[in-house]
Amino acid sequence: MPHRPCHPRHRAQAMKNVLLVLFALSLIVAFVLILILGRPGPADDELVLYAGRSRALIEPIVEQFQEQTGIRVRPRYGNTAELAMALREAGERARADVFWAQDAGGLGALVGAGLLSPLSDELLDRVEPHYRHPEGLWVATSGRARVLAYAPDRIDEANLPDSVFDLSDERYRGRVAWAPTNASFQAFVTAMRRQHGEEAARDWLTAMQANEPRAYANNTGILEGIAAGEVDLGITNHYYLLRRLAEDPDYPVAQRSFERGDIGNLLNIAGVAQLTAARNPDTAQQFIAFILSPEAQQYFASETMEYPVVESVESEAGVAGVAGGARPAPGDVAEAAPQVDLDELEDLEGTLRLLREVGLL
Amino acid sequence: MSPATATPPAPVPVVAPPVAGRTSSPPPWYLVLPPLLCGLGVAIPLGYLAMRAFAADPGELAELLLRWRNVSLLANTLLLTVAVLAVTVALALPAAWLTVRADLPARGFFTLALVMPLAVPGYLMAYTLLAIGGNYGALAQLTGITAPRLSGFVGALVALSLYNFPYMLLNLRAGLITLDPAMEESARGLGLRPVAVFYRVVLPHLRPALLAGSLIVGLHVITDFGVVSLMGYETFSYALYAQYTAGMNPVYGAWIALMLLALAAAFIAIEIALLRGLRLHRTGATTTRRQRTVALGAWKAPALALLTLILLAAVAVPVATMSYWASRADLAALAPRLGSAVVDSLAVSIPAAVTATLLAMPVAFLARRYPSKRSLALERVSYLGYATPSLAFALALVVAGVYLPDGAYRWLYQELPVVLVYAYSLHFLAEAVGPVRAGLYQATPKLEEASRSLGHSQIATFVRVTLPLLRSGLVVAMALVFLSAMKELPLTFLLSPLGFDTLATNIWSHTREAMYAEAAPFALLIMLVSAAFVAVLLSHERHEA
């Protein structure tokens, strides 16, 4: 094609366009260079961590580990369910060493897929048997209790239910908040199915639905709903309110446990596991050992307001009282929890089927 | 092939026969290759979903698909979609006209500010709206008035409309800017009153822009999860996403994603049907001139009041809420993480915006200038990529990574955001295609023909003739992709380099732990950075318009 001279204005315009494109491309190149230079090359002794727990909660622990051991941790933070699915999809070829999950369900998905390696006895023996997988495929790192949150200015403490089963009573019609799509609620339903049987769980869910509860997206939504006056009670995890109160002492919500041993007091866990795909099993177990060390456990007790899983560390999160007793000493909330083997909480499929059946999902 | 006589510009849209091809020769390879690659890129997630879907157990699948609840969820979704479209058009049409055509004071400010709601992540908009009402809400604490909180259908409608209407606005603005003023002049010359000119000339010419905006807004509503779940309004995607993540089961997740895609495909088909045979460019030989500015006169005050009201609700409320939360945060402790989050956010959002726009040009050009079933199909595939739930999109690329050797995986996935930028560009390609397409509708092929007949190659013609006419469309395309990339979560979680830390992931991780004070500075920054980027882009648009 012969190239003919064109109008200078057009040429200037064309030049301008070319310059724009070049400018855009150079921006990309500059950013790539910044990223390459800003990140040292990957080393073999680094640890790839998939963390379904919030960065805000666990980053200080990860940093302490790096400082003490000199091992570089390369984290991928995200949502437990999404990370579990990604690890499951990558299978044996997952380029990750450790998975730190928010709940037992996330770990269960990987147990089911055969993607977790057994942990050493030395690690497993640091916690009580009910805080670890029976075949040693994962170990709990902290506990979170299910509790009853309520509006103290609208409901008298004497009128609070003793058992989670009482929430379907007529007197609580339209006053209860729950979060059926939330993982910790689903773990609680799984525990109820295990403890009281499939029928009892179905009956409770149906009775609850007839009692016009209000559904929220998550646990914080339940607290906001109570504070806003939309509902008077709600079943949630214990630490959200503690964090809320730390930011705002006037927050108009209180919480307490159901009676001792009630399934509504389920002590759920966050847990950690080593992947079979791990390139560096020793480093992986070293990291897990650090999470179970007294200083890390103390961090969970005092900073994230969860329950430590190691005997030697005292909980500081025992704000809640227990139904049917005087205000108990801190730590009693963990004692009020029902005896449930946490690996049984892995059976999510059955719970989802039940929730679909009663129309909650 | 079209008549070359210099007829006066047509005052109404020319409805052409179904295949309104400009040329019958096949498109050159360099025009076909990029759209084909985009099509393949988008097909990867679809192929992944199909592969997983086939592994399903029929009994359990029937239980999941054939439920009456799905029907009621679908009805909820459609109701919400129609309502959001109506509200966004009602907000965006006057706003677009006022900021493009009227002698509005502080036009530049309003143009920029009205795009800002796009910088607010949807779930954050929902959080702030929820924080207003109720016994313990901002209103009660500041004034003592207790109003019920927004929730359910109305809550979802308000939140989705407030942060989605700028999609409509930007498309309409691009349409209005490139609109040929000669048509309105002819219509006025023929005796039409200004209002009639708007309804009979301007509005019909804005149809591609309206449809492009509706498609984006509609797909957003259909696939939204954050807003509807916080507002407690159960739509199809809400229930499906809840099962997707709760079950952690890729097989049923795939079916769920496919159901959502079917819904989106129906929506896309409707748009195609409405666009068929539309040709809006000038048929005459003259070029488009600068547009006249309309004097508002006594309407100035109401116009300003309307725009201010929109801005108060969509921008001032989130900013005020975030500022209040941020006032309780320890900013000094957060400062280093704020800085790294800004760098990481920009490091992927800017390349994604540029890449998606570069890809959108050949895709839209091929479909407009070489219309055929195949080229139009390629253009539509980009919308399917947009409608694919981003979690499914991310999982597909995770699976693709399994087949890479360690070294390549490390640099493409773990060290550099190559795959993340690739994913953003393809997932958000549709947002770039819409404005480019709307611009192409207005750029007459006659000018290109003239350039070709003067001996310029097709590429030279594109660079010298078409591209300048497309500028406002390209600017909008880049702005839209940038803003979406800044907010994106599932793709970022699963495909970002290790240790990557964007503003959006920080907001998410703090709000989910009820740490609102710590989340707020990140939220304010996401709005600030987005505002700055869009301001640079739009100042360029105004300069050229």
Shape of chain B: globular
Oligomer description:
heterodimer
H/E element string of chain A?
Answer: HEHEHEHEHEEHEHEHEEHHEHH
For the biggest sheet of chain B, the summary is: 2 strands, antiparallel
Tell me the radius of gyration of chain B.
24 Å
List low-confidence stretches of chain B: 1-22
Q: How much is the average pLDDT of chain A?
A: 86
Q: Give the percentage of residues in beta strands of chain B.
A: under 5%
The end-to-end span of chain B amounts to 31 Å
Order of helices and strands of chain B: EHHHHHHHHHHHHHEHHHHHHHHHHHH
Q: Can you give the mean pLDDT of chain B? A: 84
SS-based class of chain A:
alpha/beta
Q: Which chains share the greatest interface? A: A-B, 77 and 79 residues
End-to-end gap of chain A: 64 Å
Largest sheet of chain A: 11 strands, mixed
Give the % helix of chain B: over 70%
Shape of chain A: globular
DSSP strand tally of chain B = 2
Low-confidence stretches of chain A: 324-330
- Number of H- or I-type helical stretches of chain A: 12
Any idea what the radius of gyration of chain A is? Answer: 25 Å
